[in-house]
Structures are given as C-alpha cells and as structure tokens.
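Input record (one chain):
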Amino acid sequence: MTQPANFISTTGDQPRRPNAFLYVAVFTAGMTTMAVEMGASRLLGNVFGTSNLVWANVIGLMLLYLTIGYTVGGRWADRSPHRTTFYGILVWGAFLSALIPLVARPVLTTAASAVVGAEAALALGSFLSVLVLFAAPITLLGCVSPFAIRLAVTDVRSAGKTSGRIYAISTLGSLVGTFAPVLLLIPELGTFRTFLLFATVLYVVGFVGLWRLRRSLALRTLWMPLVVAVVSLLVLNGPLRPPVGNATILFEDESAYNYIQVQQDPAGNRYLYLNEGQGIHSQWHPDQVMFGRTWDFFLIAPYFNAPPFVPDDVESLLLVGLAAGTVARQYTAAYGDIPIDGIEIDPTIIEAGEKFFDMNREKMPNLTVYAQDGRYILNTLNKRYSVIGIDAYRPPYIPAHLTTVEYFREVRDHLTDDGVVVINVGRTPTDRRLIDAMTTTLLQVFPTVHAMDVPSSFNTILVATIQPTTTDNLIQNLALLPPGTHPILGNALALGAASLVPVETSNIVFTDDRAPVETIVDSLVLNFLISGGAEQLQQP
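The corresponding structure, as predicted from the sequence alone:
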C-alpha cells in the first residue's frame, strides 16, 4: 500500500502513541535551556557581578549557541530522523549541562582570586572561558525543537499546527525554567546544585525515552550520572571565594540577589562581602563603631545645616541599602535610640546582619528593617526623616531607578524642613562622570550639594540639603560641638571637613525616562582598567 504524497515517515522505532512523551521531552528541554541560562548569570554574577555588561554577554552568547543548535538540529533530524537519536541528544545535553558548574568551579575560584587581586587579564580570561563551557550543551538543547518537529509531523497538512504546538510547549517549559531557579531553587539549593537538578531531570527524560525504544542504548548512558557524582564530590568542596588574608569564613550563602560571605579577621573585625568581593559592605567589631571608611561620612551629613547644629537636632534616619547595619549602629551610638528605618532588598543579608553584626532587636531595638526595594518602600512610608542615607549603589550594578530626578523628589518629600540626603557614589581617581551626573541630578531637586572624597577609596559622598547651605557650616558646627558629644562625631566631622572637594556638574540628568547609569559605569571601569587601574587596586 502506497502512502499519500503528503505523508512523512519518521521511522519505525517509535512507540504506539509517539508524540505524548515527545512533548514531555520538549517541555523539559525548554525548561532546562532557560534554567541553564539563568544559572549562567548567577554563576558568573557570583564573581563578576550582575551588570548589564555581564547579562549582555550571557544572553548574546546563549542566543548564538541556540542559533547554531536550531540549524544543526534541523539538518541532523533530516539525516537521522530517529527517536533514539533525539533522546540521545537529550541525554548528552543533560550530561554536559551538569558538567558546566563542575568544570567552571576551579576556573571561577581562580577568577575570584583574580578579581580580588585586580588581575584584569586573568579575570577576563576566566570570564570568557566559563562562557565557552556553555557552547556544547546549549547547542545540543537548541537541536531539540527542530528535531521534535521533524519527528512529530506525519502529514504536511498539519505541519503548522504541530510545529506551533511544539514551540508553545517548549516556551512553557522555558517559563518554568526562568522563574523556578530565581525564585525558589537557587536561594534554597545554590547555583551549582540547581544546575545539577535540572540536568538530572533532563537526563531522566532522555533515559526513559531511550528505555522505551531500546533498553541497551539507555543502559549504555549510565556512566554519565556516575561521572557527575564523582566529579561533584571532588569539586564542590570549600568556598567559591577564598577568605582575604588570614580571615576565616563565618557564613556563606546564595540568595535570590547575591552571593554572600561574612569573614572575620584575627583582630575580631567582621566583614560583609557580596558577589565579586571587591567592596566591604558592612563591618563590625565588638569594641568599635568607627572604622575610617565610607560609613563614617554618613554621620556628617546633617552638620551642613546652618550652625549651631547639635546632635539633638537629628531625630530620625532612613537608610536605603542597609546591608548589615554598620551605619545604623553608628547612628545609634552617636545619637542615641532615635528611630531608624532600614531598607535592604536581600532578606539573606538581613539574616546575616542579625546573626553576625548585632543588627537585631536586642542590640538595636530602635531599628525597623524592611526587606524590599528601596523606592517602593519609601513611597509606602508616611514619615519624614532628619537624614535619608542611600548606600545602594554597588558598581557596576547600580539600580537606575534610585538615581533619578523623580526619585529624589520622592526623597525630598520624606525629609524634615532641615533634612538632608547623603549618598555614596563610586568614581576613579581620574573619572568623576558619575559623581558629576549625580550632582547635576540632585541639583534639579535640592538647592545645595556638597562632596567629600573618602580617603584611600574610590568613593565620594554627596550631601544634598533641603535648605541652602555652605561648606563653612560643617567647619563651624565642628567647632561648636557641645561637651559630651560622642567622640565618633568629632572624629567624623574632622575627617569630613578635611575631605571636602568642589562639586562639578555635567550635561547629564538622570530621569525615569532616561538614566544611562550603567553606560557611564561600564565606560568608567573599562577606562580605569585600560589605564592600569588594576595596579592601583593592588597597592596597599
């Protein structure tokens, strides 16, 4: 009996209901593809940060690998339209996906040391090496959809319906693979185990598919999970990022937002590190509250008001970017138990602060913590503050919505009549474009902006005041500090007065419609490295 001209044979190694399990395989492959892509951003973000530059490289190369996979998969399916070949692709895709974090682990550990040591060439090489690891598995996963269409279509009159169904099923899987890792699995299991989980699910589907068709082929793949298990035991030991100097790691975890470490040095200082570990985001010592770092300058902000300004004039504080509470602890020491609201988007950082940095109700009952986005919570608070501090700019990933004219108008509306906003902004020794743009943006809302360069750092503190003010106010208020003032206030004001620098403006104003923050930051970082800035970072 001859088949009609529009009939397409897909060979005889197919079960009685050929497409039901095929669709399961397509769903799983789509899910795994996006899970691997989301995992790639976290895998790299733990060391290199999560800037748009990192995301662009991840997404761009993934799309390139998928493009190759679509092309190869279509041709492969025409040459070998067998379901055994199809499920073999899934099994190999799963195996190679599971190997990604395992092979990447030693590369990333080396890269983490290079980033901390500012070895730019080694860090860049590691970044590119890890991205290359995704080429084979993502290309194989890209083969799945065109191959599945070739197997599922038996009548060209229904080819459109069948291909549409397969792409819809694959896309549904991609939705699961997008949200499940970010919202649930990475915070609970970590990046490495999330990779292994999705790879395992894909392997099981591929194995079952082979088992249903030809058991001997399925049994020949059992070496793959054994290899992955052995390599996992050898590789997944110890921290991703080694401790600094003689410090010890007290806490290490991955949240939905950050890779987090708490380290303690021999002197008893505890430090909070995030992601690539270049900056210290909080510091704690049982007998010390002033550290000569960026946080100390937040104490200075209200003293730009007209003299005499005294500690009792500071009645409340809001911190956007609380981290583990160093600034809140300093304000409590200097100004007493004034009401402090702290906003930190990452709940795991808050937990680390409570456990290792005395950021808890017992030690700081005056602190109320909100685990939410800084701008969202600000607009839900019906309060006015003496000081609003913003320490949420962590180059190269600065939230643009916290830099705009519209945002600073919202900040102004939550300040008292003599309130001030104090902001920590990054720079390099020769490039102050971000500082100048932030100054210009603030001047659209506030009458006066002051700047202080933090010594031995790449940070500038900007202070914007509700009332017109002068830098002389700070110097006069330092001289007028009343007896009995906490010593850290006098020390901080003296440090601030010595660190004053002229403010400059630019032709850039950040708005909700256009805020090219990351463009400036990426250029700033690149120019810094090209000009030999890495060597400056290595200097004591």
